[in-house]
Structure formats: structure tokens, C-alpha cells
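re: ur question from earlier - yeah i can do the single chain one, its not a big deal. heres the input i used so u can compare w yours
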Amino acid sequence: MISDIVLVSIITAGAAICSALLTNYFDERRFKHKSKEWFLDNIVQIKIKSIIDINAKMTECFDSINFYGNVGVKDIETYNKEIRSKLDNFIKSKNEADIWLEEELIETLNKTIGVFRQMTFAIWLKLPKNQLPKGVNPQSYDPSIRNLDWDKFIESYKESKKKLKEAVGTKALEKYVKKILG
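and the output i got, formated as C-alpha cells:
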């Protein structure tokens, strides 16, 4: 009788220990899965926000260059505030997001930045002579630097827009998620 009680006690204790171990095991697995989901969700949100920010800054810069390239800039303060600062913001946004972006998109954005830089420099060279630093002669620069290349400007902007849209598209995100999950 005592051996039956001991046996039942051992079985009961063993069952309790096994159920506690199984509960902990499955809780740990569920926690790891939820942690992965949370991590993945946040990473994807950060990437999308970065791409949206790049797009916003690039578009703001494009609009500014487009406007002042057509109407001209009267003084260096306007140039710095309305053109140069917007280009700097676009570059900064792109550089901050480089870790999230695919190489092909980075290359396209870098080309667009190059074209935008050429356009802003050409606008700068068109400032009134008294606004330019002493010794700067706009005519001493090659026409390819001095002149606004509207076709290249618009084409590079359109190409970057297209690549940014692709980067936030479903297929690109699925590819990115698979890359993270391994």
C-alpha cells in the first residue's frame, strides 16, 4: 500500500514536472516566433519609412531645382535656402538609408544626386556677379557644367522614382523578408 502511494506520488510529480517543462518549451518557442515577427515588422517599417523619406526629399529638391532653374535666383541666401539645403537634405536622407537599400537603387540614386548637383551648380553660376565669390568667372566653366541639362535632370528623377516605387512594392518586400529570415 505504501509502495502504491509512493508510486502514485512519483508518477504525479513526474507528470507535473513534464507538464511544466512542456509548457516552458512551447512558451519559449512562441516567444521566439513573436520576437521574430516584431523584429521583422519593425525592420520593414523602418525600411519603408526611409524610402518614403528619400522620395519626399528628392521630390522637394527636384521641384526647387525645376522652379529656380526656370526663374533664376536673385541672391546667394535664396540659393542656399531654397536649392542647396534641399539637395543636402536629399543626400543626407539617402545616406542614412543606404544600409536598407539594394545596390541597384543606391547606384540609381547616386546618379540622380550627380545630375542634381550639376543642375544646382549651373544655377549657382547664373547668380548675379555681385553674389558670386570674387574670382569666379562662370564663362570659364565648360558649357556642360554651365548649362542646365533638363533632359538628363528629368530622366534621372523619373528613373529614381521608378526604382523607389519598386523598392516599396510587394515583391521587393517579400525578397527582403526572405533575406532576413534566411
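The mean pLDDT is 85. not sure if urs matches, ping me
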